[in-house]
From TrEMBL:
<dbReference type="Pfam" id="PF05618">
    <property type="entry name" value="Zn_protease"/>
</dbReference>
<protein>
    <submittedName>
        <fullName>RimK/LysX family protein</fullName>
    </submittedName>
</protein>
<feature type="domain" description="Retropepsin-like aspartic endopeptidase">
    <location>
        <begin position="6"/>
        <end position="135"/>
    </location>
</feature>
<dbReference type="InterPro" id="IPR008503">
    <property type="entry name" value="Asp_endopeptidase"/>
</dbReference>
<dbReference type="InterPro" id="IPR021109">
    <property type="entry name" value="Peptidase_aspartic_dom_sf"/>
</dbReference>
Length: 145
């Protein structure tokens, strides 16, 4: 499979959550992808053992709760060196018009500039990162509409 070039920042879609054009930082220093969430709870949702969480986005005062029954937990070391147990969910992301099954850790990224971080597990064998470029996938999406 030929690798595509991706910039340091892009806008991606999370179709299972109905979210489009979410800014993501491409981070080759991170092993796993993560998504900014709040109010993360492990609980019963409609009779199914689930993770329930909110994805707060800029400019959106409404709070929407999302849930996933496909999850695990894992100890993850942050960029500051702190290790914390995080929930990991499986979902689909759309980049360059292609759906990719992947996983995201759920974490509070309030202090971070980007709500989503795409790590090496998603990037490996698919993309070459050019840090001089941005929004290549988003530009392709807008040009094909």
């Amino acid at each position: 499979m030929e690798k595509m070039t991706i910039g340091r920042i892009d806008k991606i879609d999370l179709p299972e959550f109905g979210l489009e054009n979410i800014e993501a930082k491409i981070d080759t220093g991170a092993n796993r992808s993560s998504i900014h969430c709040s109010k993360i709870e492990h609980r019963d949702f409609d009779g199914v053992d689930s993770i329930v969480f909110s994805i707060p986005l800029d400019g959106n005062d409404e709070e929407t709760l999302f849930h996933s029954s496909d999850f695990t937990t894992k100890n993850i070391r942050s960029s500051s060196g702190h290790v914390e147990e995080r929930y990991i969910i499986k979902t689909t992301v759309v980049i360059f018009g292609k759906q990719i099954n992947t996983s995201f850790s759920l974490t509070d990224r309030t202090e971070m500039k980007f709500p989503i971080l795409l790590g090496r597990k998603l990037l490996a064998n698919r993309y070459i990162v050019d840090v001089d470029l941005t929004n290549l996938s988003h530009q392709l999406k807008n040009n094909t509409k």
